[in-house]
Amino acid sequence: MFKVFSNPDTVATPVASYSQAVRVETGNGALVFVCGQLPLDASGQLVGEGDIGAQADQVFQNMRAVLEANGASMDDVVQTTTFLTDITSLPEVNRTRAKHFPRNPPTSTTVAVTALARPEWYLEIEAIAAV
Q1: Does pTM top 0.90 for this prediction?
Q2: Are 110 and 84 within 8 A, CB to CB?
Q3: Measured CA distances, 80 to 9, 28, 43, 45, 83 (Å)
Q4: How confident is the prediction along the chain (131 residues), in pLDDT tens digits per residue?
Q5: Nearest-angstrom CA–CA distance, 23 and 69
Q6: Is residue 42 within 8 Å of 12, Cβ to Cβ?
Q7: Chain centroid to CA 76
Q8: If you count Cβ atoms within 10 Å of the first and of the last residue's Cβ in the chain, which end, N or C, has fewer?
């Protein structure tokens, strides 16, 4: 198995010691593991302060950018895990998610958490894609 670790410049630099994605080449294709994406623009600035819908949209845009940098697309995503600091915001996140996965949405797990690394971040979403 061959692994490629990636930190594309189309998304913010990781806030700790991790990679934005790892592409694992298999005999029949590849799996792309995308780390939890945050509501940050490419310069690391928060997008959507106080607005869960805007934050969710930025998270999915970041996910798309990381996938594309690794030869994958949103259509290749097979699993997502969403971490939400306010579970009552799930319907808004789901509406935004539906815009980014208009057909054949991936499997999904949502976890309510008491906090993320910074209080102004309302959600974080990780993904696995099969290419």
Answers
A1: yes
A2: yes
A3: 22, 22, 24, 23, 10
A4: 788 888 888 888 776 788 889 999 988 899 999 999 999 999 999 999 999 999 999 999 999 999 999 999 999 999 999 999 999 999 999 999 999 999 999 999 999 999 999 999 999 999 999 99
A5: 10
A6: yes
A7: 13
A8: N
Measured between alpha carbons, how far is 33 from 42 in angstroms, rounded to an integer?
A: 19
Both tokens of 65, joined, read 């950018």
Question: Nearest CA to 122 among 52, 28, 41, 45?
Answer: 52
d(CA 12, CA 15) in angstroms, rounded, equals 8
Phi and psi at residue 77, to the nearest 5° = -70, 130
**DSSP code, position 74:** G
Q: Which residues of 26-62 are buried (b: 16+ CB within 10 A; e: fewer)?
A: eeeebbbbbbbbbbbeeeeebbbeeebebbbbbbbbb
Rounded to whole angstroms, the Cα distance separating 69 from 81 reads 20
Residue ranges and CATH numbers for the domains of the chain are: 2-130 (3.30.1330.40)
CA distance 1 to 74: 23
